[in-house]
Amino acid sequence: MRSIRRGIKEMDLILTAYSEARLAQLDDVMLDDYEALLNENDQDLYMWVSGQTPTPERFSALVGDIASTLHRN
Known about the structure:
- This protein has 73 residues and is an all-alpha fold.
- The protein has one domain.
- The chain is built from four helices and no strands.
- It is globular, with a radius of gyration of 11 Å.
């Protein structure tokens, strides 16, 4: 998956940490959502994960998981 070498450094760090911590534990539905999420614009992803803008419903659970994983580390 393309969790590293994103468009902005912040998302490199966030998604690399998330993939190392959680990727092996995701079910097939969450993996499909994660793959779709990686196709989104990095600026949008950062705004969603940081809570600066609302996350689209489709990605709500996944972005919440990414954010909570980020805050645990």
